[in-house]
Model the fold of this input.
Amino acid sequence: MAERYTIAIAGATGDLGTLVTRTHLQHPYDQIFSHVRILTRDVSSPKAQALKKEGERGIITQFDPSDEASVDQALNGVDVFINILGNIDDKTKDNLIRSLVKNKVKVYIPSEYGVDHAKINFEAPMLKSKLHHQEIARELGRGELKVVAVYVGLFLEDSIVGAQYAPLLGFDQEHVTYTSVGPPTVRANYVGIQDIARSVARVAQLAIDPKTSSTVPDHVRISGAVVSYADIAAVVEKVAGTKIKLESIELAEWKEKMIASPGLIAYMRYIPGAGLMNYENDNHNELVNPGESLWKWKSVEDQIKNLHEQGRL
Ligand SMILES: NC(=O)c1ccc[n+]([C@@H]2O[C@H](COP(=O)([O-])OP(=O)(O)OC[C@H]3O[C@@H](n4cnc5c(N)ncnc54)[C@H](OP(=O)(O)O)[C@@H]3O)[C@@H](O)[C@H]2O)c1
Done:
């Protein structure tokens, strides 16, 4: 059997983190990762305990990212560190990097999972902190720490009609009106959360294996469904039989307000609407899932059908 590694997952109890952790506890990752450290601030939480039952290679480990000693202890002997933490401050992020370097961790996947910074053509202070973190990790890692950022655009289930925040993103199902920022035909990238988890696991596997490590770039773009507000409306009309009205907000008008008052929702509407989140022809799908041989990418139609069957649409 090939060499097996220890992986640690921070943010393992979050929505994406739970799926990433589960994936690593399943076959074929048992052949690659002998130990999966499931990091959490509260080892007794129901989410942590539920993950413990998913496989005996999973080790629930106390981890407080703001406490240097706790981080050092959790990272000791780790080969791959996947960060899926929510919003943590810059000092805590710096501490993480210091510990990654000190513990000679070989592969680091930072908590990105959104937009590729290289595609952003405006000043976005809220995104800058994530980019800055990667850059410091590469600089201090000095080639010994392979840092791979994974970009997915938007989480499919969280970002279209049916999602908790869908009305804030312009999907007003009550009034059967979808309002895009920019033209409703501009397409953007949406990836199913399970597909994101699978992609992250593949990146971790390929990046740690000396035979494939060099095939993994520093920045990995995943492209699932690439659709516009008009495409989403057409799928809803087809599946649910509801006629959807399309409206749009002027891109320049939205941008002006967003620059004056930046916010996550403002970005989540502007970036796709401005055509800055379309990875259809510029992605690494073939690296993580060649020819869809490992899984079939979730489509908007899959999601809308699920919602319709559950009576949620
Ligand atoms: N592109 C998209 O559409 C999209 C959507 C959602 C998220 N994301 C990205 O995905 C990543 C994960 O986001 P998420 O919403 O899943 O995260 P989250 O649920 O806020 O947090 C994940 C886990 O991190 C730990 N955590 C949260 N806040 C912490 C803090 N202040 N200090 C220490 N630990 C903390 C918690 O674990 P414990 O309590 O067990 O310690 C939590 O379960 C982020 O980078 C986010 O930007 C992208």
In short: The CA atoms of residues 193 and 220 lie 16 Å apart. The domain at 5-153+192-221 is CATH 3.40.50.720 (Rossmann fold). The first strand starts at residue 5 and ends at 10. The first helix runs from residue 15 to 25.
